[in-house]
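Quick review question:
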């Protein structure tokens, strides 16, 4: 076995916080082999699972610099999580006082629900969803807590607003995804959600089937390049496998354009982490549209989940890949329109140029920028 292959396998086996006995045995055997430990550390940090890997390898026969490097990353992650949990408590308290229903997405709430040691889950920011009618009021509440919106050129997506203070970033969502992407129906999410609590604060929680689909959608939306996202999926499947309505969910997804990305994320979670997703469910939602075979080849060519270059997670390559994931002509046309007739905001973000100006001047520059970016990405 090559050093790189051993490093990959150690990472995958150690990233699961509740490994099976068979996976524990495999990890123990691999730890007797020679591995590229620097790769293990860098991949664990990149994929947001350093704390989990440290926890699984604690006390194992690993080189001292590996143990120390992972421990430092784990400590930094715990400190960041404690700050985020405090900020989320402040946010939820403010929403509760004002009567604004809030549905936390991922983050500390998901960590408490799924992880045996919640502080080991890496979180970079806080994501909360409010109803569209409450969005303006929620903006005022967030700003009253000392948060300020990031500059327009740093906002990116149009379905949330990013706020920041000296401690954390908060993404205030009024929808689940951008309009050109096939996504979940946010009204259906609210309709099936239930009242819950987190640390004494009232919240709204997604129904388990919606949570599974959302985690898969979010993993794909970010390019399916995060092992942490797949760990979330594997743990949710483990926790709720017996209560998830697999047959009904399969039929529901089969009729919706979001099915291909759900299939991709769940199948990767199964193949890489052993997530116990039923074969019958995956067969039901398996994509069969024209373009899927090419999408699979491009996904593997770019490095799959573990080894994709950051260069390929933005720009033309990712736009093409996401378009190929779409199963309908209408959905693909939305992607084409967005990228061939971009908004001022998108042009400004991608091309690092002013978002406004004459189309006679700016559009040729946009096309040239896209062509250069695609050639550079293919060379990468």
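Suggested answer, residue by residue:
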């Amino acid at each position: 076995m090559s050093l790189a292959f051993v490093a990959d396998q150690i990472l995958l086996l150690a990233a699961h916080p509740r490994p099976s006995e068979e996976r524990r045995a495999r990890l123990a055997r691999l730890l007797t082999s020679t591995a590229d430990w620097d790769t293990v550390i860098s991949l664990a940090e990149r994929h947001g699972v350093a704390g989990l890997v440290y926890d699984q390898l604690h006390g194992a026969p690993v080189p001292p610099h590996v143990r120390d490097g992972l421990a430092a990353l784990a400590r930094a992650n715990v400190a960041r999580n404690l700050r985020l949990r405090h900020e989320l408590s402040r946010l939820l308290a403010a929403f509760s006082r004002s009567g604004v229903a809030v549905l936390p997405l991922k983050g500390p709430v998901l960590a408490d629900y799924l992880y045996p040691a919640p502080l080991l889950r890496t979180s970079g920011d806080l994501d909360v969803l409010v109803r569209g009618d409450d969005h303006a009021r929620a903006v005022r509440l967030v700003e009253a807590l000392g948060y300020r919106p990031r500059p327009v050129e740093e906002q990116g997506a149009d379905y949330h607003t990013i706020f920041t203070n000296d401690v954390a970033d908060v993404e205030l969502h009024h929808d689940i995804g951008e309009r050109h992407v096939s996504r979940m129906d946010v009204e259906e999410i609210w309709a099936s959600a239930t009242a819950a609590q987190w640390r004494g604060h009232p919240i709204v929680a997604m129904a388990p089937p919606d949570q599974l689909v959302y985690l898969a959608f979010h993993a794909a939306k970010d390019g399916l390049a995060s092992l942490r996202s797949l760990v979330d999926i594997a743990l949710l499947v483990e926790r709720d496998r017996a209560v998830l309505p697999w047959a009904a969910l399969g039929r529901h997804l089969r009729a919706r354009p979001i099915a291909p990305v759900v299939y991709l994320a769940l199948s990767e979670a199964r193949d890489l982490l052993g997530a116990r997703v039923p074969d019958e469910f995956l067969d039901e939602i398996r994509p069969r549209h024209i373009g899927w075979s090419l999408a699979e080849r491009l996904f593997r060519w770019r490095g799959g989940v573990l080894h994709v270059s950051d260069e390929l997670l933005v720009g033309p390559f990712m736009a093409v890949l996401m378009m190929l994931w779409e199963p309908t002509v209408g959905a693909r046309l939305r992607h084409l329109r967005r990228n061939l007739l971009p908004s001022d905001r998108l042009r400004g973000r991608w091309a690092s140029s002013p978002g406004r100006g004459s189309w006679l001047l700016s559009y040729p520059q946009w096309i040239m920028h896209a062509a250069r970016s695609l050639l550079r990405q293919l060379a990468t």
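Why it works: The domain at 86-206 is CATH 3.30.460.40 (Beta Polymerase; domain 2). The mean pLDDT is 91.
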